[in-house]
Give the backbone structure.
Amino acid sequence: EAGVAQSPRYKIIEKRQSVAFWCNPISGHATLYWYQQILGQGPKLLIQFQNNGVVDDSQLPKDRFSAERLKGVDSTLKIQPAKLEDSAVYLCASSLGGRKAFFGQGTRLTVV
Amino acid sequence: LAKTTQPISMDSYEGQEVNITCSHNNIATNDYITWYQQFPSQGPRFIIQGYKTKVTNEVASLFIPADRKSSTLSLPRVSLSDTAVYYCLAGSGAGSYQLTFGKGTKLSVIP
């Protein structure tokens, strides 16, 4: 079974630039999560989708972050403009709707 | 969502059994306890989940007492490859489950 695919694996940008991350969940998984994980901390939920509707985006900094899930499948997370404190690993996960989620390998973002 | 508390770090020698305890005093009636494992440079991986008493799979066992205010993840005969961060989650959510991670327990297995 194919896992959760994320791209790119690594990205280095300058502050105030924009960046986008892509996630392809496991086929048939209705729930999709985006997490931000800063070094040494646990993953922090940014946004949760159920099909193409948003379930929870309470911790998404909406002045600079945006996310969408087209047709209830692939998803993109965008940061515009980036700040130094956005340097982190961005993880995408999907599930059938239960507590067993499958995570991608993440995108490591460095903002300089 | 129930707040969880677990030790920041633990050390263990290879071959020993490791028990990581998680406290969730305000767990709700319909909350389940779920554990994830995370290796460096990888996303978290589901290990085990339970509601009460004991659950065992090929990786670990999960012990939950009757009051459900705590739970213990047990890893039998750990090896160096079990060095990772272990997260305890307690919650359910309605419809689509919320997965809220805390700081986790960093387990270091020593040869």
About this structure: Strands of chain B lie at 9-13, 18-23, 32-38, 45-50, 53-56, 61-64, 70-75, 84-91, 105-110. Chain B touches chain A at residues 32, 34, 41-46, 49, 85, 87, 89, 95-104 (CB under 8 Å).
